[in-house]
Amino acid sequence: MFERFETENDISWEFVKRLCVPLWFTDQTAIRTLCDKIAMAEYRRAGDEFGKESKAEKTALWYIALGKKSILATLYKKEPAQAKVV
Predict the structure, then answer these.
(1) Which residue of 4, 40, 58, 74 pairs with 46 in a disulfide if CB–CB is 3.0 to 4.6 A?
(2) DSSP conformation letters of 58-71
(3) In the predicted model, is pLDDT for residue 23 greater than 70?
(4) Nearest-5° angle of CA 83, CA 85, CA 86?
(5) pLDDT for the residue numbered 62
(6) Those residues with Cβ within 8 angstroms of residue 71's Cβ, 6 or more apart along the chain or in another chain
(7) Is the separation of the CB atoms in 59 and 86 below 8 Å?
(8) Is residue 48 within 8 Å of 81, Cβ to Cβ?
(9) CA distance 43 to 36
């Protein structure tokens, strides 16, 4: 269904919320796939500018909700600020 509306970077929680998708999706696999697409799109859109949230922070809630803590840990390890701390 979403192939009709989205390009890879355009999907967002705001878009999904406006369509009330969480109310009418009943298939858990479809919901998980949708959340995964939202997380990936948020990561791609997140900025690298100084003073902005890190890319991993923008997607943390999504990956924790999906039970993908290992992916989240990998994203944090890729952060330039993390390399300076470690």
Answers:
(1) 58
(2) HHHHHHHHTT-HHH
(3) yes
(4) 70
(5) 92
(6) 63
(7) no
(8) no
(9) 11
Between the alpha carbon of residue 7 and those of residues 2, 13, 43, the distances in Å are 9, 14, 15
- Rounded to 10 degrees, the C-alpha dihedral 35/36/41/47 comes to 100
Residue range 4-23: mean pLDDT, rounded:
75
Q: Which two tokens stand for residue 78?
A: 């890729």
Identity (one letter) of the amino acid at 82?
Q
Is a pLDDT exceeding 80 seen at residue 57?
A: yes
Beta-strand runs (E) in 7-79: none
Residue of 21, 26, 22, 56 lying closest to 42 (CA atoms): 56
Structure-block tokens of residue 44: 């791609």
pLDDT band per the 50, 70, 90 thresholds, residue 58: confident
C-beta neighbour count of 14 within 10 angstroms: 9
